User: Fold these one by one.
Assistant:
Number 1:
Amino acid sequence: MHKEVYRILSFIILISMLGGCAGKQSGEQISETRLLLDTYCTITVNTPVDSGLLKEAFSLIENYEALFSITIEGSDVWRINHANGEPVPVDPQTVELVKRGLEFGELSGGMFDITIGRLSRLWDFGDKPDQPSVPGEAELTEARLTVDYRQVNVCTADSTVQLVDPDAWIDIGAIAKGYIGDKIAEFLIESGVTGALIDLGGDVVTVGSRHDGTPWRIGLREPSGGNNGSGLLGVVEVAGVSVIGSGTYERQFEINGISYHHILDPKTARPVISDIVSATVVTKNALTGEGLSTIVILLGSEKAQEVFGQVPDFIGAVLVLDSGEILRLGNIELIDTR
């Protein structure tokens, strides 16, 4: 997971709920925020709940980060990337997430590729946002040659992952937060929680509804700042689903008048050229939403409906095009905030 701390203002923001102060509580809800996954993570639950529940939930997030991080030495992903092509025994949950990443590779025709690790670390938009630089052509070409999701071997029986190309690296940061959000939601439901909102740096998973029975209200930020005074495209009301977004403006820098964003085309080794500026996807689970929100930007708007139609968990999407046009697909209502 890349460093995203500097990106405090997400394109998904929460409306009409408790804010982000650690341990903030009202008569109906309790909310806590911690810095994890290189971003700000907030969990809000309806009361009454056990006083230690949020602590357990954040501990689970820490455990997942220790498995999936590309930068934490000794993580499952780190060990896979440094195994020189040998099979690596990993946690079954790592196997599960890697397999889903490979499925997204198939769905996207290879445009979404978890073996993009060498490229993503070359660009590394998060680590040095104040000192941006463009990688050299030679190193981009060398890294691009290691990108091929079909060269990942996963064995569920003995829970191992192998990179056939010893120089390749996997990076599952593009889908890890969705997976973690789903797991935290499962944990809260099993603990008896009937209403909760999990916000992992703008990736939102909801459990049930708010304390008064009304849906959670999620605001979608307008990429250019908006012209309605609120900076919002509008609001979606949801209960028991996830709202996940990606945007080319989300992490970017500019050098000599040229903008570079973090969604990389594995075929060119450079930021993808797409007519979609942002994609917000509502799905039954967050992992699916994570994959879809990135895939449609990689493929463009003409193929978006086709991709969504292949995924049973898809509910709806709001796509903002570079022309300023807003596309609403599937079953989604965008409430005007003006």
Number 2:
Amino acid sequence: MKLPPPRRLALRLALSTAALLLAVATAEFGLRQFAPQPISWLSIYAPDDVLPYRLAPGAQQRVETGETSWDVFVDAFGYRADGPDAAGRNEATYLLGLGDSFAFGHGCNQEQSLYGLLDRGLEGVRVRNAAVPGYGPTQYRQVLEHHLGQPGLVGVVVTSFLGNDFHDGIWNKDRPITDGALGATAGRRYWLKKTSHLYRFLSAQAHALGLGRGESDLQLSAELMSHAAWVDGRLAEAERIYQTELERIRDLCRENDLPLFVVLLPARTTTDDELLQAALQTAELAPEDWQRDLPTQKAAAVCARLGLPYFEAGELLRTLPPPVYFRFDGHFRPETTRVLAANLERQLAPGG
């Protein structure tokens, strides 16, 4: 018996839906059995009594985003380590490396991170990677306070990423921690990311193509270049806090006879032409309303006022052939960090 057109259409839709669900279920089962997909977000955090959060001592994780594949090991003291056997090495003489995800080495193994490379390149002193993703100048100062008086501390390096370090002073850092992860770890999307290997596989393919850049990130980049934001906007308060925290770090180092060196990493729009154009288009800034290296100029002026020795990495980064950054991850590629570390070795070495 021939079905009427509406029923034929309904039957086709039902069969198509069933076929799609079967294909999804088959793909999910196949990935789970033969190619399990690791999570692409860091789940290495723990609460802290002073800091908003910290790295969980002993945490280990393999991270794959489709664009990057890397390992994270945290030693017994809560600092990034070379491997699982580094169970809490307490160096006799060390430089304290402070910073956020750029100094931490997001997207890279520890030995490819800035402080990991300096640890191997500087003679006669270890470099402790005390950088934590999401930290800002206030947290840098709090970590330094924890280390003051500890045996072996001989100097401090602050690596300040100007793409968000000003904002970090005014952002709320009290973020929930669930399963070792920060931020929005509830709801259907998190459940899907946590549960489905197919979802993580498809996300990895999108990340490998550089997809996923949010409009909010572009607005943030544009705000940092806007003259008005530093006068009448929230960046006026952010600049004040940034200077206050660097001044407190300077004073603590002076009181404890510790040399201090500041590394200024420019906002990505300062060196990335593609991201610059995307940010300007999103914010619709007029030519007279913005300046590309404005956050760098603000940070350099703070360091000059405080009498801090510093290195501004923008000119160096502009000489490097692209790609300087991971497309989706947004952080430095390993070859970029190697060039930066080699330059800093010469400046941090005795007599440099």
